[in-house]
Amino acid sequence: MMRFLSFLLCVCILAFAVSCTGLRKTTTSNYLQSLSDTSRRDTIGREAVVMPEVVIQKNDLLSIQVYSASINPQVDALYNLPQGATTTATSNGGFLVDARGNIEYPRIGSLHVEGLTKTQLADLIKQKLEGQLTQPSVVIRFVNYKVTVLGEVNTPGSFTVPTERLTVLEALGLAGDISEFGQKNNVKVLRENNGKREVGTLDLTSSAMFNSPFYNLQQNDVVFVEQNGQRTKEREQQNTATRVGLAATIITSIALILNIIK
Fold it and tell me: DSSP readout, 135-198?
C-alpha cells in the first residue's frame, strides 16, 4: 500500500512539474515588422504625413474665444463666456454640444456644429460676426479630448489629451503598452461617427496600419487589445497545477496517517 501511495505521489509531483513548465513562456510579435528603414534614403519623393482634422461630436466640450481689432476689451467680452460660466448649454466654462449637435453662442444664437472641424466652426462664427466686430478671429479647442484603452494592456483606462492629436501607438503608450498576453496584430478601435458605431482592426506589426482611418484616433475612441491564446493556456496550466498540488497534498496526508498507524 505504501509503495502504491509513493508511486501516486511521484506521479503527482511529475505532473505538477510538467504543468508549470510552460508558464510565463510567451511568444510576442514586434511592432512594425514590415516597416523598412528610411533613415538613409533620399528624402525626395517621400509622402508627407497628413493628420486629419478632428470633427466635432455630440457631448464634446469646446473652448471658444473671440477676439477683434477693437482696443476696448469690453467689446470682445460680449461675445465670450464669463470665466467659470455654467448654463444648460455650457459646462466648466466651455460650450457643450447637445444631443442635437448644437451649441448656444452669445449674441449669435444656436449653431449646428456636429460634423464640423474646428476650422469650419471658426469660419462659421466669423461669418455670423460680420458687421458686429472688426476683423474677428476665433480660437477653438477641445476641452474633453480623451480616448479609452481597454483589454490586454498594462494600465487600462481613459486618457485626456491636451494636444488633440493622438495615434493608436501613442494611446497604447499612455496605457503602458500591450501586455504579454495581448495580440499586436488584432487591435480593435471602436468609434462613433455621426451617430453610427464603427469598428476598425489594426495590425501593429504591419506598416499598412498607417493607411487605416483608425490609426489616427478621434475623441472618445475606444481602443481594445484582444487576448492571445497564451492567456487561456496559462490559466488552464494554473488550474491543472492547483488540482495536482491539492491531490499531492491529500496523498501525502494519507501516507503520513498510514505510516503513523503502522
Answer: S-EEEEEESS-EEEEEESBSS-EEEE-TTS--BHHHHHHHTT-B-TTEEEEEEEEEEEETTEEE
DSSP 8-state code for residue 262: -
Indicate the pLDDT class of residue 70, thresholds 50, 70 and 90. confident
Distances (CA, A) of 1 to 13, 125, 258: 18, 92, 9
pLDDT in tens, 117-148: 999 999 999 999 988 888 999 999 998 889 99
CA torsion 101-196-222-102 (nearest 10°) is: 0
Say whether pLDDT at 3 is over 60.
no
Burial of 44 (0-12, 13-18, 19+ CB in 10 A): exposed
Q: pLDDT (tens digit, 9 = 90+) per residue, 206-220?
A: 989 999 999 999 989
- Which helix (H) or strand (E) element contains residue 43? none
Whole-structure pTM value:
0.66
Could you give the count of Cα atoms lying within 13 Å of 136 in the half-sphere of its Cβ? 23
The most distant pair of C-alpha atoms in the chain lies apart, rounded to whole Å, by 108
Compute the Cα dihedral for 122, 198, 167, 210 and give only its sign: negative
